[in-house]
Design a protein that fits this description.
alpha+beta; five-stranded antiparallel beta sheet; 9 helices; binds adenosine-5'-triphosphate; nucleotide-binding; ATP hydrolysis activity; ion transport; P-loop_NTPase; ABC-type ferric iron transporter activity
């Protein structure tokens, strides 16, 4: 098997816009054929990053290398048309006065007519959108417009495809199927892609790598499983799920808390931040006493709100087992020790 080759190398990208650091030393390397899902809260710099890669925004510092060629930085600037980068905008930006087929052909003006027709027919066939090709954008549903926009972005066979919130305009029901279809197509074509979203759940299930961004910086990157189960930072832990923050302090080789003791590395920085997901709590005879403050049954999931002595905030516990607990009842709660997450809280203010 061939070694993967980095096709997008983003090195220490910085860009100030309107006095804000939209990009602040952002670095990431993406392999050929890799699908990266870039996620972060609104305003963290996701769109600016895509625009810099596409060449429709400049850099203050840093360098972008695409396919081995320096395209931005060190006084180099390669024009967007020369970059072999496709861009799919959040609102699709289809031309209203062109049919679906003409929209798809739009980026192929420099090809001769026969080759262009062939290319357009090929992508229409691949996406199974033949029935839409003579229609105008206003005659298409949101899902159909999304497919035309995708076909238009893919028609020039870009080495890299950038997609800004490509599924956010779709209904919930449609979003899942369009997302799977789009990913399957990108994989079949071997396209390297960066897909932007602000939805944590979507990020975890889209693509090979999740890259979490905050205030113009990369917080961490890894597979969806890794960033969810073993986040390296408290910011990532809290971005991808609700959390219980539990006070804890060092006691020898352990972090001691009202919910028990957890192993702590000797060199772990202090103060300690102990974070526990609602699903990491369970009821057991030898747990810590807790009073049920609230209980909500949600079909497959039961949620309990539990007051524990020594905790200012009640704990949220979720389980797929129905405990049958009643409000006011005293229960005993424990933590799956391997799921307790311990961080250093000294940088919390700057990271949230
Ligand atoms: N043209 C501009 N002029 C001034 N400030 C800008 C400009 N473009 C972006 N910004 C600022 O830069 C920061 C990053 O913006 P950007 O649009 O890249 O974020 P984003 O993560 O894509 O947000 P969203 O998810 O809301 O689209 C924001 O604080 C934004 O207000």
């Amino acid at each position: 098997m061939m070694q993967p080759r980095p096709i997008v190398v983003l090195d220490q990208l910085s860009r100030k816009l309107g006095g804000v650091s939209a990009l602040d030393g952002f670095s990431l390397s993406i392999d050929e054929g890799e699908i990266v899902c870039l996620v972060g809260h609104s305003g963290c710099g996701k769109s600016t990053l895509l625009r810099v890669i596409a060449g429709i925004e400049t850099l203050d510092a840093g360098a972008v290398t695409l396919n081995g060629q320096l395209v931005s930085g060190q006084s180099v600037f390669v024009e967007p048309e020369q970059r072999k980068v496709g861009f799919m905008f959040q609102d699709y930006a289809l031309f209203p006065h062109l049919t679906a087929r003409q929209n798809i052909a739009f980026g192929l003006k420099r090809m001769d007519r026969t080759a262009r027709d062939e290319r357009v027919s090929d992508i229409i066939k691949r996406l199974g959108i033949d029935a839409l090709s003579a229609k105008y954008p206003h005659q298409l549903s949101g899902g159909e417009q999304q497919r035309i926009a995708l076909a238009r972005a893919l028609a020039p066979q870009p080495a890299i495809l950038l997609m800004d919130e490509p599924f956010s305009n779709l209904d919930r029901g449609l979003r899942e199927s369009v997302r799977l279809e789009t990913l399957n197509l990108l994989r079949a074509l071997g396209t390297t892609a960066i897909i932007v979203t602000h939805d944590p759940e979507e990020a975890l299930s889209t693509g090979d790598t999740v890259a979490l961004m905050h205030k113009g910086r990369l917080v961490e990157a890894g597979t969806g499983e890794a960033v969810y189960a073993k986040p390296q930072t408290a910011y990532a832990a809290s971005f991808f799920s609700q959390l219980n923050r539990v006070p804890a302090c060092r006691d020898g080789a352990a972090a001691s808390s009202p919910l028990g003791r957890f192993p702590l590395a000797p060199d772990h920085p202090e103060p300690i931040e102990l974070l526990i997901r609602p699903h990491s709590l369970f009821l057991t005879q030898d747990g810590t006493a807790a009073r049920v403050v609230d209980r909500a049954f949600r079909g497959e999931i039961e949620q309990l709100v539990l007051a524990v002595d020594g905790l200012a905030e009640p704990l949220i516990m979720r389980s797929s087992r129905n405990s049958g607990a009643e409000i006011g009842q005293i229960v005993r709660v424990s933590v799956r020790p391997e799921e307790a997450m311990i961080f250093d809280s000294s940088h919390r203010e700057s990271s949230t």
